[in-house]
Amino acid sequence: MKAIVGIVCMLLFGIIAKAQWFQLTKQRNIGVGGIIGGLVAGPYYTHNQIHRLPNGNLCLTTTASQDTLYDKTVWGYGDNDGWYLEIDSEFNSVKQWIIGGDTTDILSDFILTSDTCMLSLFISNSDSSFDKSQNNKGDNDYWIVKTDMNGNKLWDITLGSQYEDVPSRIYETSDSTYLVLGNSRTEFPSGDVSDSAG
Fold first, then answer.
1. What pLDDT, on a 0 to 100 scale, did the predictor assign at position 149?
2. Structure letter (DSSP) for residue 69
3. Cβ(144)–Cβ(174) under 8 Å?
4. Are strands 80-87 and 58-65 parallel, antiparallel or unpaired?
5. Radius of gyration of the chain (CA)
6. Closest by alpha carbon to 83, among 41, 32, 126?
7. SS3 for 94?
8. How do beta strands 44-46 and 49-52 pair?
9. By three-state DSSP, how is residue 17 classified?
């Protein structure tokens, strides 16, 4: 397990939503504790995102440490996990949940899919534990998790080589398949990596 070096910090989501029917702007700061947002560990970044759900609420996603602090009221599983917070139009917390394994899982990307589900992409250092059903294949691996809109896991898959693999983005294509972008440090075919340029 790689050690995460950092200081306790607070991430503030500046959420600005314009309510057209009242012609006013609302804002609320949402804070969590731990190493979160921006530079997390070495060269790895978490991408904080806000998505509008089909029910009109907003879903905020980021990477958070295990403890509870400020608006984060659910404990994590490992050193770092994906943290998901659903808020309503008044910015009240509706529900929140964690996705992760027993060590470090950094949320790299998050999308809503055409079949009304959620897809999360992680840089994962965890073996099979908690939400993760497969062991890592090397150092860090790609970990993809599909959930319903309530955060209930539908499936997950771990992809990687015996070396370090760092995913960055995930996309849904027009034929409802998923395209994952990232890099691998393997210099020869290994695990799920069938070719390498060296």
1. 96
2. B
3. no
4. antiparallel
5. 17
6. 32
7. strand
8. unpaired
9. strand
Task: Give the separation between CA 24 and CA 120, rounded to whole angstroms.
Answer: 33
Q: In the chain, where does DSSP find H-type helix?
A: none
Reading phi first (left if > 0) and then psi (alpha if -120 to 50, else beta), residue 77 is in alpha
Residue 150 pLDDT: 94
CB atoms within 10 A of CB 182: 17
For 29-68, the DSSP string reads EEEE-SS-SEEEETTEEE--EEEE-TTS-EEEEEEEESS-
Dump pLDDT digits (tens) for 15-67: 333 333 334 456 667 765 544 444 444 456 667 889 999 999 999 999 888 88
Q: Which residues are 152's β-sheet partners?
A: none
Q: Are 76 and 41 in contact (CB under 8 A)?
A: no
User: pTM of the full predicted structure?
Assistant: 0.81
Residue 90 token pair: 């008044």
* DSSP label of 178: E
Cα distances (angstroms) measured from residue 194 to each of 3, 141, 159: 30, 15, 12
**Tally of CA atoms within 13 A in the half-sphere of 32 that contains its CB:** 27
Which residue, 99, 195, 93, is CA-closest to 143? 99
Q: Which residue has the tokens 């799920």?
A: 192
